[in-house]
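User: Design a sequence. Structure:
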């Protein structure tokens, strides 16, 4: 079967699909990944065909930023670009579409025009539930009715963002006019199947979800079996006690010097060695007790750490649990506060330290807590054991086999 996985967004929105695609390829399918052009190397490393989509999130500003009007405008521009190339990616030969939450509002119209079946493969929950508020709203529950209402409003906002792109796409596909909101209602009424690539160790499946919404466990980014950590990092890891990773550079462009200073002071105050991941902010520090690195696979590094300091993104939160290490979270925006709160709720992290209140003293106190209180490591290890019996990629392979008949 020729399968096209279509996703768009940041690296965390794309990388998990490389592992999923690799599992489908090993099951005998021909697999292509459609994503924005900068992610071609990820697909090629996993042995997947790559089909570029024309949109690039950074071309329209920081979609994950904190200013709502700017974020909405950036998202609308991004989806307009995305829609332009979506049909082209599918037209190259496809028997099955696997759609992310970002590409599904476009993919539904392509499946209508072509008759190609589609399957939802989402990294985060989007369907309304009374169990929790929408992930982008943060951590405060609004009550069961309020949570469901807030989720419906969030989906309406998403539909408004996609409206211009959907109109142009349907015109190109020679389909009659149909709004993004009406198509979503049609898919929901038809119980369109969606598989969710997160772990119930971190977030239990909502009790009020319908049967067509499944949670499979995480889909992990592909890592070549022969890949190794850089020699300098291996030497640093071998030179002393397990260090703490500080990776705060993904949403703090231009603040590398300030954040690097905070990280080093916090590590030394807590008496810990540290690995700083430079990220887009350009974190850097010198010293026998600190090493600065670039991008390395979480699956290779995290099991060698004492803890990880990060923004609380879904992928990094899951990677820390998979490795059985506690986290200290410094959420900034989007769904980071939600996942940071989930880590704290299961005991794998202390309460989040919001980015706007971050100081070396607060970070040092949180680090001291997670490395000295064994309950955090114990909770992380329990989650790791839970994740070890989940096989999210195999669940998708099985679902695809059933669709193929």
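Assistant: Done.
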């Amino acid at each position: 079967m020729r399968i096209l996985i279509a996703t768009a967004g940041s690296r965390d929105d794309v990388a998990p699909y490389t592992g999923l695609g690799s599992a489908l390829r090993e099951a005998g399918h021909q697999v292509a990944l459609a994503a924005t052009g900068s992610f071609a190397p990820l697909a090629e490393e996993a042995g997947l065909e790559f089909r570029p989509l024309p949109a690039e999130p950074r071309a329209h500003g920081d979609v994950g930023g904190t200013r709502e009007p700017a974020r909405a405008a950036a998202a609308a521009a991004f989806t307009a670009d995305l829609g332009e190339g979506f049909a082209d990616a599918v037209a190259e030969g496809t028997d099955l579409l696997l759609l992310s939450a970002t590409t599904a509002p476009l993919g539904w119209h392509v499946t209508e025009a072509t008759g190609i079946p589609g399957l939802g493969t989402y990294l985060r929950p989007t369907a309304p539930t009374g169990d929790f508020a929408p992930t982008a709203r943060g951590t405060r529950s609004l009550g069961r009715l309020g949570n469901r209402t807030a989720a419906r409003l969030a989906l309406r906002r998403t539909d408004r963002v996609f409206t211009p792109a959907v109109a142009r796409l349907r015109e190109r596909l020679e389909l009659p006019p149909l709004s993004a909101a009406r198509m979503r209602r049609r898919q929901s009424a038809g119980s369109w199947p969606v598989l969710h690539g997160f772990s119930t160790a971190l977030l239990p499946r909502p009790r009020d979800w319908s049967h067509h919404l499944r949670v499979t466990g995480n889909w992990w980014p592909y890592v070549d079996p022969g890949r190794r950590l850089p020699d300098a990092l291996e030497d640093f890891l071998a030179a002393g006690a397990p260090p703490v990773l500080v990776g705060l550079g993904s949403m703090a462009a231009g603040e590398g010097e300030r954040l690097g200073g905070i990280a080093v002071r916090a590590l030394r105050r807590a008496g810990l060695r540290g690995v700083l991941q430079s990220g887009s902010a350009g974190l850097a520090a010198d010293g026998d007790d600190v090493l600065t690195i670039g991008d390395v696979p979480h699956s290779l590094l995290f099991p060698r750490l004492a803890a990880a300091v990060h923004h609380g993104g879904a992928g990094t939160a899951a990677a820390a649990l998979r490795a059985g290490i506690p986290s200290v979270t410094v959420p900034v925006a989007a769904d980071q506060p939600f996942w940071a709160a989930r880590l704290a709720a299961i005991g794998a992290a202390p309460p989040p330290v919001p980015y706007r209140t971050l100081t070396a003293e607060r970070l040092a106190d949180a680090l001291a807590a997670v490395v000295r209180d064994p309950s955090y490591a114990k909770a992380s290890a329990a989650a790791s054991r839970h994740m070890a019996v989940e096989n999210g990629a195999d669940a998708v392979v099985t679902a695809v086999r059933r669709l193929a008949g």
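The longest strand covers residues 30-36. The first helix runs from residue 11 to 26.
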